[in-house]
Amino acid sequence: MPDAQLLALSPLDGRYAGKVDALRPIFSEFGLIHARVKVEVEWLLALAADPAIVELEPFDAAAANRLRALADGFSTTDAARVKEIERTTNHDVKAVEYFIKERLSGDAQLGPALEFVHFACTSEDINNLSYALMLRQARNEVLLPRLDALIALLRGMAHAHAALPMLSRTHGQTASPTTVGKELANVVARLARQRDVLASEGISTALAALDDRSRRIVEERWLKVNDDGSGGMTLHELAADYGVSAERIRQIESAAMKKMKKALVAYS
Questions:
Q1: pLDDT band per the 50, 70, 90 thresholds, residue 82
Q2: What local confidence, expressed as pLDDT, does residue 268 receive?
């Protein structure tokens, strides 16, 4: 047995390492750094597309493609460079910011935008979106395809053994007879239901838990915002609409988010 397995802190890096290889590019530190780069790149693109930020010239299509290529083509060598920078910054997210600035410094159009990388962001702004991207990628690229394959296999077995008698039991005693196919079909139905839950964003269920006013505030503040940052309403705009203070709108929004979180937990 290789020493690396014997020295692993987690069974996922030891005994079960081969079972989670598909998740390694997503949930490893490389995967997290990659996601952070994606978020930083898209944030810079959003800033450049906002006409209200007059200090930042809009990017043309070629420049935007070059910027996205930095994230799309991110490699383990790039991640190693980020870690090298981190030895100086002693800050993981700051190291990503410096990596992007380093790569853009020689670009005629993107170079002048360097100081807008990570502009107005905290580390948590970058991290929480990165974790969401990682979870969504793992769900869409690994978990759902594996679940679909398992469901298809079991469904085929259910049909193949639909007429095969089977002794059923309840509380350790024999019960009404069944068939192997029928029992497999039960498993398929339950797996399919949970698969649909996993595939769903669940936002509709969460919104349904809110009263009309809270729902509209959440929708106007977050769900009607376009990719370029346009749309939606500010706290002050909603406050004027409802005849209350902006702080009161913030309180309603905060309480709504807590209700939505509970609804999503119950939904899953």
A1: very high
A2: 63
Q: Which fold has domain 201-268?
A: Arc Repressor Mutant, subunit A (1.10.10)
As a whole number of angstroms, the distance between CA 116 and CA 123 comes to 15
Q: Which residues contact 41 (CB under 8 A, 6 or more apart)?
A: 67, 68, 70, 71, 100
DSSP 224-262: T--TTS-SS--HHHHHHHHTS-HHHHHHHHHHHHHHHHH
Asked if 194 and 177 count as a contact pair (C-beta separation under 8 A), the reply is: no
pLDDT (tens digit per residue) in 13-36:
888 999 999 999 999 999 999 999
pTM metric for this prediction? 0.82
Place of tokens 């309403």: 233
Domain 24-121 has CATH 1.10.275.10: yes
